[in-house]
Amino acid sequence: MNQSLKRTNALECRPPRPTRWVRARGALWRSILDGVIISAPWTQELLVLKGTAAELWYALAEPVTVDQLSRQMSTSFDSSADAIAGDLASSLRELVLQGAVEVLR
Amino acid sequence: MTVSAADLQVTVAAHGLTGSMRTWPDAPLTASRWKELLARATSSRLQGLLVHAILDGALPATTEQLEQAAEAHSHAMTAALVLDRILLDATAALDTARIPYRALKGATFAYARYEHPELRTYSDIDILVTSECIEDALRVLGSLGYERGFPELRPGFDRRFGKAVTLADSRGLSIDLHRTLVAGPLGLAIDLPTLFATASTIKIGGRRVVTLGNEEQFLLACYAAAVGDVPPGLRALRDVAQFALHTPIDTQRVIQLARSWASGAVVARALNLTWHALQLADAVPLSTWAARYQPTSHERRILNAYLRTRRYGPQALASLSYISGIRQKVAFLQAVALPDGKWLEKKQASRTQWLRRSRHALVRSSRLDLTKPSGMQR
């Protein structure tokens, strides 16, 4: 009984895992000169990302948080990590809607 | 010295290959020569190699030329992604129906044989199934919306003698459902169960796709290079070079398979054409074997059936030696000479017209000196 209680308390005390973003399983893509073409699973539409949006795609090879992405991409945006975090979050949400990116919680 | 666009196109096909002695121009091409090169590279499906030749600094180009090459490449990559999705859907459906398959050429070469898939383009999907499963596979792909454009030559022909059935969906995108690797006698000479005795896998979009063993894939590349087109397609030659130079293949097993499939001359021709056209300086065991290979008279005769005339008559005649049993031979000849009414209707030919055409083809074939060597490059 005591042990069970301890486990529950331990879970409650753990900080919430930050949301991570990654390329959708089953997404296909090809690099082109100025960007990337993506075929998201379950849709017939192809998506073309160029410039920093294409860089965002390359950065999503492994699950990452918005904070990690912001730090990683601040040089490309020529801006501070804090300043681009909002833009990145909205780009990621858009890519999720398009089926190209998935969220890991 | 000015190099022609045709010659430069070959250099593009060799771009990045270890030991190629082909040379590039020192300055960007004039507008007209560039236009010709771009058109040639596009029709030969070398868009990926062209863009990378420019980006790697091998082919000098203006900004406008780079943009045009990139646009052609982007179109090819869009098509490749659509085809990859079709391949994944088709192979998933075959898996669900428990139909063994091997994906061929196209995506399997691009993902597994090239440094990255952007270098190799393709225009359709090729999937091999066993003779016993071809009808079930047609039903499965039919349920995905892929229908055959042409009726069967005669009932049972696809399962017994056919190379492949071409299926297309409402968008016009096609899948070639293969029973063997090549049309005519070479296809009939292949011991088909061996194609399913080995396998390798590639991952596309995280999904496992089954393809032939490395040596069987290499022979497939050789068929395309040696007898697929006359003159040989540059992309097919590049595929042969990718295998021979950059893929771990068992040379002895290749030679053994080639011998048992009556394809020694085909493999030697493919390698010799590749080494000659792409000017590859480095010898590998297979290229050395090919340079010394002496085809048998039987192999020469078969090769000639493909190269000296592109007509079906000589290939049909040569096919007979690989069809066992008199009943099977009669069934084959009957199908070729007297196709089904629906097939003739689609072909817009009457039975009399077709019979006359078949008779002429057979007479022409019998007059051909099929024993002459066919310009093997050494």
General description of the model:
The complex is a heterodimer of chains A (105) and B (378). With 105 residues, chain A is of the alpha+beta class. Chain A contains four helices and five strands. Helices cover 48% and strands 22% of the residues of chain A. In chain A, the strands form two sheets. Chain A has a three-stranded antiparallel beta sheet. Chain A has a two-stranded antiparallel sheet with strand order 1-5. Chain B is built from 19 helices and seven strands. In chain B, α1 (5-13) crosses α2 (31-43) and α13 (264-277) crosses α14 (285-292). Residues 368-378 of chain B have low confidence and may be disordered. At the A-B interface, β2 and β3 of A face α4 of B.
Per DSSP, the total helix count of chain A is 4
The geometry of chain A reads as: globular
Structural class of chain B: alpha+beta
Low-confidence stretches of chain B: 368-378
User: Order of SSEs of chain B, N→C?
Assistant: HHHHEHEHEHEEHHEEHHHHHHHHHH
SS strand fraction of chain B: 5-15%
> Rounded to an integer, what's the Rg of chain A over CA atoms?
17 Å
Write down the oligomeric state. Answer: heterodimer
Share of β-strand residues of chain A = 15-25%
- List the helices and strands of chain A in order: HEEEEHHHE
The share of residues in helices of chain A is: 40-55%
Q: Largest sheet of chain B, order of strands side by side? A: 1-2-5-4-3
Radius of gyration of chain B: 21 Å
Biggest pleated sheet of chain A: 3 strands, antiparallel
- Given the structure, what is the number of helices of chain B? 19
For the structure shown, list the relevant keywords.
heterodimer; A: 105 residues; alpha+beta; 3-stranded antiparallel β-sheet; two-stranded antiparallel ribbon; 4 helices; 5 strands; B: 378 residues; 56% helix; globular; disordered C terminus
Write the layout of secondary structure elements.
The complex is a heterodimer of chains A (105) and B (378).
Chain A: H1 2-13, E1 20-23, E2 28-32, E3 35-39, E4 46-50, H2 51-59, H3 66-77, H4 81-97, E5 101-104
Antiparallel strand pairs in A: 1-5, 2-3, 3-4
Helix pairs in contact in A: 2-3, 3-4
Chain B: H1 5-13, H2 31-43, H3 47-55, H4 63-96, E1 101-104, H5 106-113, E2 125-129, H6 134-143, E3 147-148, H7 157-160, E4 164-168, E5 174-178, H8 184-189, H9 192-195, E6 200-204, E7 207-211, H10 214-228, H11 234-246, H12 251-260, H13 264-277, H14 285-292, H15 297-307, H16 312-319, H17 326-337, H18 341-347, H19 351-367
Parallel strand pairs in B: 2-5
Antiparallel strand pairs in B: 1-2, 3-4, 4-5, 6-7
Helix pairs in contact in B: 1-2, 3-4, 10-11, 10-12, 10-13, 11-13, 13-14, 16-19
